[in-house]
Design goal:
Blueprint: H1 3-26, H2 42-53, H3 59-62, H4 70-81, H5 87-106, H6 110-113, H7 119-135, E1 138-157, E2 162-178, E3 184-187, E4 193-204, E5 213-218
Antiparallel strand pairs: 1-2, 2-3, 2-4, 4-5
Length: about 220
């Protein structure tokens, strides 16, 4: 076999090898294939979700009060005035405030809870604590937790942006009252009692002060 034929066969073998190599890397196409579509971005997904939710009921409100009620409208105004406000978040904060204020009152630690009370409520609580101290009474109390919590009512003043939200609590508490001699004159050690309260909290929406203040108590 002469030299030109040998060179031709070598070149042909190299060409076949390269073709097979390209097929294994790139794959093959049969007929027309549409170009790959771009994957939707997170922003486009968020827009679709917003378009579905927009105009629908606000479950952050209607999960706690009747849809279309005066309380629901008041809560909606609060959210429009201060978009960061959320009903569920508020109720979670109210749960913590209930324990803090209740136990502060029981233990006579009025200075710690004063920032969270209106002047009227503070004076009423402080009067009871002062009377106990004059009689030499000591309160021993343990908080057992909030068993039930629900939004009872809501009100919004358009002129002042003042919001009021009433919350119903059912808590568990064990407490005894001891006289100067250390004798129990009220309550029973270790006995848990259920306590029902309706507390009303107030705040000016949009104000720099984030604290809600307790302005009324009842059952």
């Amino acid at each position: 076999m002469n030299q030109p034929i040998i060179q031709l066969l070598v070149l042909a073998g190299i060409a076949i090898f390269l073709i097979l190599r390209l097929r294994s890397v790139l794959g093959t196409r049969d007929g027309f294939e549409a170009p790959p579509q771009p994957r939707p971005t997170e922003r486009s997904n968020a827009r679709r979700d917003f378009e579905v939710i927009e105009g629908g009921p606000d479950h952050d409100i209607i999960d706690h009060v009747e849809e279309g009620s005066e309380a629901a409208e008041a809560l909606a105004k609060m959210k429009r005035t201060e978009p960061s406000f959320g009903v569920a978040q508020f109720l979670q904060g109210a749960r913590g405030a209930y324990e803090m204020i209740l136990m502060g009152f029981e233990r006579g630690e009025m200075a710690q809870i004063k920032p969270f009370l209106s002047d009227e409520v503070y004076e009423a609580f402080a009067g009871v604590v002062e009377a106990r101290e004059k009689e030499g009474l000591q309160i021993e109390a343990e908080f057992g937790g909030v068993r039930e919590l629900s939004l009872a009512d809501a009100y919004f003043d358009d002129a002042t942006n003042t919001a009021e939200v009433s919350v119903k609590f059912i808590g568990e508490l064990s407490s005894v009252v001891r006289n100067k001699a250390g004798e129990i004159i009220e309550g029973e050690e270790g006995k848990v009692k259920r306590q029902k309260d309706i507390w009303t909290f107030e705040r000016v929406m949009g104000a720099d002060d984030p604290n809600w203040r307790l302005v009324a108590t009842g059952e």
